[in-house]
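Two proteins were folded this term; both appear here.
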Amino acid sequence: MALERIYADILAVRIIPNVDPDLAKQFKLENHHRSLAIFTSTVDDIGYTALDEATKRADVDVVYARSFYAGSGHASGPLSGEMIGILAGPSPDEVQSGIDAVRQTAETSAYFEALNPEKTHALYAHVVSSTGSYLSKEAGIRRGEALAYLIAPPLEAVYGLDAAIKAADVKLVKFFGPPSETNFGGGLLTGSQSACQAAADAFRDAIIDIAEKPIKY
């Protein structure tokens, strides 16, 4: 089955050059966090992947990242999407560089894959070859290690994770028990880059099998 790629749209972006001290306290910013870049995206997991990439390309930290309940199909407004991400850095130039990395990642290298023509059934089997500070912290691993970032609808996520873990020398370091805020599930697996790729491939294959034969067990 050939799967069509689903990229995320970055819906809105704003930069705060010099954040107000009261707002800085709410985000528990460090003294060097003087500027913020805020964005919303139509796909949360792509947004989180893009945030991690930003920490590798600019002097920025992820200070806030949350998914919205029920997903982009039930967004609170036309610019809300499925998640919000906030980067903090020492200057407007740095956070702008971070946002540039977010947009490039979301538009070119991170994507879901559609399992049906309507694109209502999809999975995320993305390999991060070298993590930045954000996903490293989320996964509890050292910066620069590889990750398989695996997401799917609830049943598919559980079945696919089992197949992925068995397919390669990887370890499940974070489990997103279904339902998440967006009613998906999945996990983060770590190992060598090749092992993470093998796990992601097994995850995808297992979910394609479910899509093709959902009741045959």
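Next, the second protein.
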Amino acid sequence: MLRSDFHFELPEELIAQYPLSERSASRLLCLDGASGAIVHRQFSDLLDLLQPGDLLVFNDTRVIPARLWGQKETGGKLEILVERLTGTHTALAHIRCSKSPKPGTRIQLSAEPGAEPCGLELEVTGRDDALFVISSEGGPALSEIMNEVGHMPLPPYIERSDEASDQERYQTVFAAREGAVAAPTAGLHFTEALLAKAAAKGVQSCTVTLHVGAGTFQPVRADNILDHKMHSEYIEVNEAACEAVRAARARGGRVVAVGTTAVRSLESASVSGQIEPFTGDTDIFIYPGYDFRSVDAVITNFHLPESTLLMLVSAFASREHIMAAYAEAVAQRYRFFSYGDAMFITAGKQQESA
């Protein structure tokens, strides 16, 4: 299967640069994965699509202010994107500058790009493949440094600097566990009121954790998608979530994953054929031909052309139906990507019992 099979043309003006004023005011394209039928609705209509006994599975990760600016002692400017905290004072990070820093390089941080150093420092202590190992040993914890001078790591296709409002809007209302450098964007549409109404209707919910890494934006460079090396992300699927999935299936309800991160979490925990608790890294790569074991429906935003996430939803509802739905979304001027509109997708075939 070729990367080009997942290409589509997207007018630049359809890439949402800001969220709508109301979280649940987004549009919702509903796709029947079996027939390919499309219905245009509003996200606030979601309750009409859910049934008592269904289970919503949310990713409760919380985005950290992972983007930092600074300079080397030589004066060279650089940008840091923390990929993963590995300890109180250590992390793996991407560093963008004219010349890659060597181990031992001291970085003087600034509150804004190009600003004077603020007195906080980091040290590059090594490499881990393409990532740099950074440390704040001898100073504040890295989380404290990020909270003081870090910025929300908006995706590369949002072509503006982060603003104060992004601290709240690029975060789900149920975010609880710090560790992500990108938001689980399908969850951004939910409000406390919508969650309460779903519960009142008899829709159950549970959470998993997947700390989204910057690798989620990594392009597929291989022409044959089977040659793509998938990035790893940390997940936790506990026994409570597993039991919630089993109970939903037992009562005839659907397991509705809120976002591709929830899909990857549930399916990583179901590789044996039965869902079981899982803690650790996953590099699961879901593409057409994959047999889903724990997910019956997906709520998701629209994804980048030729991306692994577009391949994931194409596995769920068939490439043909997804690509036709994306063409319709473009024609109907839907808003794309993180701050854009959403889809509700039902499975293309009956899933295996979890």
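The mean pLDDT is 95. The domain at 67-149 is CATH 2.40.10 (Thrombin, subunit H). These notes refer to the second protein only.
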